[in-house]
Amino acid sequence: MKRKNLLAILKILVFVCAFTGTISACITAESRGISHWATKLLFFTHQSNVWIAVTCFAIAVLTLSGKSVPDWLYRARYVFVISISVTCLIFCFTLAPFADYNVWGYYSVLNHVVVPVLAVADFCLDKRDLSLAKKDTWLCFLPPLAYFAFVMPLVLCGVDFGRGDPYPYHFFNFHTEAGLFGFVNSKPAQFGSVYWFMLIFLIVLGLAWLFYAVNKTKTKNKN
Predict the structure, then answer these.
(1) Full-model pTM
(2) Which of 41, 102, 141, 164 lies most in the core, judged by the most C-beta atoms within 10 Å?
């Protein structure tokens, strides 16, 4: 019972940190030179924070109220843990090192680092017996693909994503010297957008298999 309550608190922390970071990013957006606060919601970062936050909060509420948590909700958490982990890795290793402005505000740290770490910890510590099949790993591609389908029309229409850039991330900028398939000697866009998308595909696939293995191990140990 004590472990169950502690895990519920951890999930609530995910919810609180995710929404604190997202709301703070929106509130302070215009003071940081962003054209409109709502543009922050066009980024995968904040969308993935909302997904994992709502999922964890729903599980926590059902757990604390003594109600049964359906498997689909835990399966959704698995999918969204992958999304928030991708957010962390892409930000820390490809975006933050090359940004020409301060990206380490408290809201950014919450959304890109704290929430992913808490969400991963929650997933690894929660001993819920979730029966994941190998085919379920492909569900982890749904959020990135949904985001791609959502954002591509905006990119093609030249929508301002905040600081005059008609794209949310540098790999959506198809007009660099690298273009779609090229290579250049400059960072961060050293190679074309298609290669970036292939890299992200591999990251999602690798994380999906990693957390699938983690889930298999923890449920096996429970038994």
Answers:
(1) 0.92
(2) 141
Q: Could you tell me the residue ranges of all domains in the chain?
A: 2-222
Please state at what angle helix 44-64 crosses helix 2-27, rounded to 10 degrees. Answer: 150
**Six-digit token pair at 41?**
């919601």
Conformational region of residue 173, where left means phi above 0, alpha means psi within -120 to 50, and beta covers everything else: beta
Structure tokens at 157: 């229409």
pLDDT in tens, 167-185: 999 899 888 888 888 888 7
Which residue carries 């962003």 as its tokens? Answer: 34
Mean pLDDT value across the chain: 91
Name residue 223's amino acid.
N
pLDDT of 87-145, one tens digit each? 999 999 988 888 877 888 999 999 999 999 999 999 999 988 788 889 999 999 999 99
- How is residue 53 written in tokens? 């936050």
Spatial CB neighbours of 175, under 8 Å, sequence gap ≥ 6? none
Among 162, 63, 56, residue whose Cα is nearest residue 116: 56
Amino acid at 63: T
Q: What is the pLDDT of residue 37?
A: 81
Distances (CA, A) of 27 to 19, 37, 129, 146, 150: 12, 7, 40, 26, 23
